Amino acid sequence: MKALKIIVLAKQVPDTRNVGKDAMKADGTVNRSALPAIFNPEDLNALEQALRLKDKFPGSTVSILTMGPGRAAEIIREGLYRGADNGYLITDKKFAGSDTLATSYTISQAVKKLAPYDIILCGRQAIDGDTAQVGPQIAEKLGIPQITYAEEIISVDKEIVVKRRLERGVETVAAPLPALITVHGSAAPCRARNAKRLMKYKHACTVSELQEMSEDYIQLHKNRPYLHIDEWTVDDLDADEAWLGLNGSPTKVKKIVNVVFTAKESKALTASDADIEALMIELISNHTIG
Amino acid sequence: MNNIFVYCEIEDGQPADVSLELLTKGRKLANELKCQLEAVVIGSNLDGAVREIMKYGVDTIHVADDEKLYPYLTLPHSSIVTKLFEQEKPQIALFGATSIGRDLAPRVASALKSGLTADCTSLEIGEHYDKKTKTQYDNLLYQIRPAFGGNIIATIINPDCRPQMATVREGVMKKEILSNDYKSEIKKIDVSKMITDADMAVRIIERHIEKQKVNIKNAPIIVSGGYGMGSKENFNLLFELAEVLGGEVGGSRAAVDAGFIPHERQIGQTGVTVRPKLYIACGISGAVQHRAGMQESAMIISINNDPKAPINQIADYTITGDVAEVIPKMIKYYKKNSK
Asked: What is the ipTM of this complex?
């Protein structure tokens, strides 16, 4: 098998898993600023699958592509520390308010710039929205097959063979390349940062980030071109603006209700039917369960 | 035209529960909107499934029956559904939030350039006034879903594009047969006109049942038992509650050491650290080592015979009583009060 060109789609997300007591405000709503921004967990599983292919097929390249605000360059650096070769940040105010359809359009236009490619890998879903829609929508826009819920890439030859994790079991499928694979959280966890790569890439940054830096830093970047993280705005994509951002998003948010956790002090209940029923009704109504 | 469509998943010749639940909901929405309910069934040997689907009050069933359409494959199913929707122009299209529905619906939504909302927990009909364009919209589908790790509940609408598409998880809606004698109109889909050779590019090599490894770290709800559970058999109650609530089962070190539950489920300093939305501690006294692994949980319920158990100090709710009595009641009243 020849060397592969692999693109990993990644997203920077607020860490919604760790909404503990300290992440709640006094009124019981989420204190978003208290949530750290992280590499979406299943995108890390996807990165690991990409790096394994790179290990297996020398000469392969792994590029990280992310869409988000300027600070999302952080996850490209994180990817470089773990073994990716380079990264692309797609960022523009015109992308603000994108739903999954507009997001998939934007990313697919960026992916087209990187063609030809063999494999696109991404997490099954991001933990801030949990929709699992962007992967399949990008595959549709690129006109390539998708394999969702992947747990392991078994082989790549003329076809890619993938084990999928479904509700009631597993399924092994083969697809022609290029293909888009969304990776399930049950796949192998991502390898840790490599100390040498951390030293090599810790100063990697985008053009926008570089503007904030000192003259020395700019000189460093001139001497070491591998520190450059590509940054693309809408002008770099061959995109129809009608399909971007809020304009390109058919879904609108009509209403948001914060889930309020009212129980602050311990409430003592008995095992009586009335107490247990009242508790279950309360847990359902404040969306803790159900 | 402008009807409600439900994509029906088939497993072993029968429609999936989630599809029947959506048909039940779809029937109610169709009555409210005074339109028809239609179903799409794609697979092979579908006669039995179609007979079952009729009972849910479906006006028209579109059937694509062909050997190569079962088991499910993304490309042929999405080609058929996309082309059918282009012809029939549904106003609403519903899919199960399963590994099939969540694979298929986004592909169809992208092809139709329409909006899709994942994992809805409630669907309602309502109106909307757009202040910017001064446009009044009536009879929109309110797609209500949790987001942000379940910390907010969002109502999503799709004012201008059709169909309004949504996926719903299994067990969220009720399934109810409308009439055992209901007769639907059957429309056969000419499969050869709907799919190309390229749609058959992906093939299934093997399918089998294989249990997933335990993943308590990411479970939103954890039902956990301690030494006070008394026996391995009593832990079955915890598995029942966890299954009903969509959670996982954990245990304290004492319960693991006693052989009530395998080590991979141990929570605490020497086990896994968890931060679920809801932690239900059953017969756990709450040694500091255990508390270190779960005290960051957003909500803690403690069920214990001993009102002075240390875990009660960090619990949001304490239930003083016997686990064997309390848990069946929790299951009963959850089922009674959930939608």
From this structure: 0.89
